[in-house]
Amino acid sequence: MEIAIIGASGYTGGELMRLLLNHPSAEVAVATSRRLDGTPVASVHPHLRGLTDLVFRNTEAGDIDADFVFLAVPHTAAMKVAGTLVERGIKAVDLSADYRLPKDVYEKVYGMTHQAYFEAPYGLTELHRDEIRGAHFVANPGCFPTGATLAAAPLAEFAHTIIYDSKTGVSGAGNTPSETTHYPNVGDNFSAYKWTTHRHLAEMRQEIARLGSGARCYFTPHLLPVNRGILTTAHILLSEPMEQKEVEALYRRYYADEFFVRYQKPTLAAVRGTNFCDVAVESEGDRVVAVSVIDNLVKGASGQAIQNMNLMCGFAEDAGLRFAGMLP
Ligand SMILES: NC(=O)C1=CN([C@@H]2O[C@H](COP(=O)(O)OP(=O)(O)OC[C@H]3O[C@@H](n4cnc5c(N)ncnc54)[C@H](OP(=O)(O)O)[C@@H]3O)[C@@H](O)[C@H]2O)C=CC1
Ligand SMILES: CC(=O)N[C@@H](CCC(=O)OP(=O)(O)O)C(=O)O
């Protein structure tokens, strides 16, 4: 199957190309960039040199010749081309935020009118597998909502309040340099941002509600001086206390059949470069602390996008994604 990546010069585009090198049934045939038409992919992604001869092309969505497309561009850019792909009958996963929320919620959170809205399954694979399987267009979740929701999902129905406290690596901000990502500002430093107003809170609330929970959700992100990874500490306040044994058994049962969710002490290094989410819980009665880790560029973006592509196209869900991280 031939793949096109729109926005292939960015971090998630590069990560899609890296991961798809090992996919048994898919090969990247088109890598688009507006700025880099005619430039070898390996000149921007040097880790791919010798593994791909592809050259970036500034191809319009209407002219793309491929069986499947990944949209790896910022929100608002994705909505400009999504409709064309759907009309042409080309299956696609959108890594941006453009189709993750209902229109009215999107417009409120992103402060703009959605120009090309349609409904799409939310691609948090473990929770929405049946809708994703066979779908033509899937909205890949945000990186924070992926790790946070997987941390809280098993206890959602027993909770009245969930407070997510996340620490993220800098690659979450994309490849455009900014004051925030400037090395002296981020290196040897640590800070909170968007303390109460991060746009991913809407996705987190949506997923907890879809689990049938009326729990209130809150979220504060922090910027870690590392390139990859998100560690989320979810403080889950329960209506009735639960003992450690019961909570741990619940988590182990909930994820027993999920290859990409592992119950073990979460550390960023153990999931770096992989599609795994590691999770563990500790109870102190009416507060359970659930900690999860993911790689923001893999389970938080490109890896989960491939997991979704696999379901949409009838491949094994773990095709191209079954490998270990690197320790130490
Ligand atoms: N980084 C992460 O951890 C995660 C990112 N995402 C989402 O995935 C998408 C891609 O993110 P990421 O790879 O980090 O972003 P980057 O900024 O690293 O790359 C995006 C690429 O899109 C192209 N682009 C930028 N603006 C436009 C535009 N207006 N129209 C068309 N193309 C454009 C650029 O390529 P060129 O200039 O060469 O055309 C750029 O290299 C975003 O929507 C992001 O929110 C989701 C989860 C996690
Ligand atoms: C470190 C950093 O800046 N992270 C980004 C992650 C968001 C992201 O990638 O999400 P969308 O796909 O929803 O745009 C942020 O907090 O905005």
Automatic annotation (TrEMBL):
It catalyses: N-acetyl-L-glutamate 5-semialdehyde + phosphate + NADP(+) = N-acetyl-L-glutamyl 5-phosphate + NADPH + H(+). GO terms for molecular function: N-acetyl-gamma-glutamyl-phosphate reductase activity; NAD binding; NADP+ binding. Pathway: Amino-acid biosynthesis; L-arginine biosynthesis; N(2)-acetyl-L-ornithine from L-glutamate: step 3/4. InterPro entries: AGPR (IPR050085), AGPR_AS (IPR023013), AGPR_dimerisation_dom (IPR058924), AGPR_type-1 (IPR000706), NAD(P)-bd_dom_sf (IPR036291), Semialdehyde_DH_NAD-bd (IPR000534). Residues 2-135 form the Semialdehyde dehydrogenase NAD-binding domain. The keyword DNA-binding does not apply. SUPFAM superfamilies: Glyceraldehyde-3-phosphate dehydrogenase-like, C-terminal domain, NAD(P)-binding Rossmann-fold domains. Keywords: Amino-acid biosynthesis, Arginine biosynthesis, Cytoplasm, NADP, Oxidoreductase. It is an enzyme of class 1 (oxidoreductase). Its EC number is 1.2.1.38. The keyword Secreted does not apply. The active site is at residue 143. GO terms for cellular component: cytoplasm. Its main location: cytoplasm. Belongs to the NAGSA dehydrogenase family. Type 1 subfamily. This is N-acetyl-gamma-glutamyl-phosphate reductase. It comes from Methanoculleus receptaculi. The gene is argC.
